[in-house]
Amino acid sequence: MKVKFWGVRGSIPTPLNSDVIRDKIKQTLQLASPKDISNEESIDTFIDTLPMSIVGTYGGNTTSLEVRTSTDDLIIVDCGTGIKQLGHELLKTEFGNGTGFATILLTHTHWDHIQGFPFFAPFYIKGNRFNIYSPYNDIKERIEYQQVYTHFPINLEYMLAQKEFFIIDKESEIYINDVKIKNKSMRHPGGSFGFRFEENGKSFVFTSDCEFNIDEIDKIDTYKNFFENADVCVFDTQYTFEESINKIDWGHSSASIAIDIASMFNIKRLILFHHEPDYNDQKLDTVLSNAKLYMGINPDRRGNLTINIAREGMEIEI
Ligand SMILES: [Zn+2]
Ligand SMILES: [Zn+2]
Predict the structure, then answer these.
(1) Domain range enclosing 35
(2) Does 188 share its domain with 287?
(3) How does pLDDT run across 282-298, given as a tens digit for each residue?
(4) pTM for the complete prediction?
């Protein structure tokens, strides 16, 4: 399996503003020496030495992931604003001439997970086909409602691609060719579902929008089959530990609880996800470094866990 992140931000799209860009330019210039900027090649070499949070950004688009199976089947997880750019890329493929097919899985229908739906260009090309899966039995109505005329000028039925909705049983397994996909109900206002993908002995767990408060930790054994031995787990870490204490029942988790759960269930690689919209790139650097610090407090218990933080455009192979 391959996974590409097209949207990693939680709650609301978060574009960079001029002040932030100016600050990045200023930091870059402060770090440069005359020989770093003497020609184009040295400039490129210098830029490559800088931290991503200075020369780039974690990204402001909301949740959307591209999962490619070993047979190159396309599975899209969530339709946050990140799906718009994925759509533009897909237009260069069979989706551009109306012969594309993809599976879409929806975790839940909060805006940050469906708002890109009306802006996904392959939906407008006749002949493309999409199978859309969710455990919510009114999933089609929820998506249609986002595009009633008072909210968006084009109804779902005028998007010419074929869009078929499938309601899957809660906590059941489905197969997309050889990929087994298990869903798990998560604690979140209005509900949310995580997905565990398994193919060729490898497993990938995606769980955004989930809160693990004391009640949930008390019954953590019920999550065993979902998390255990995952090769990669993408986890909702919107809050810092302190915020998670102050925002009980807001529906999100922190990096420290993600690390505890990863350790508990022998997860090999953890990817911090669903970034708080009020956090800039430097703050997200700190979220990652604090997570590594927390892991270091008890390295024996946490084994060989690798921790990364999601950014737009990041690709991983599982
Ligand atoms: Zn969300
Ligand atoms: Zn949500």
Answers:
(1) 18-55
(2) yes
(3) 999 999 999 998 888 76
(4) 0.95
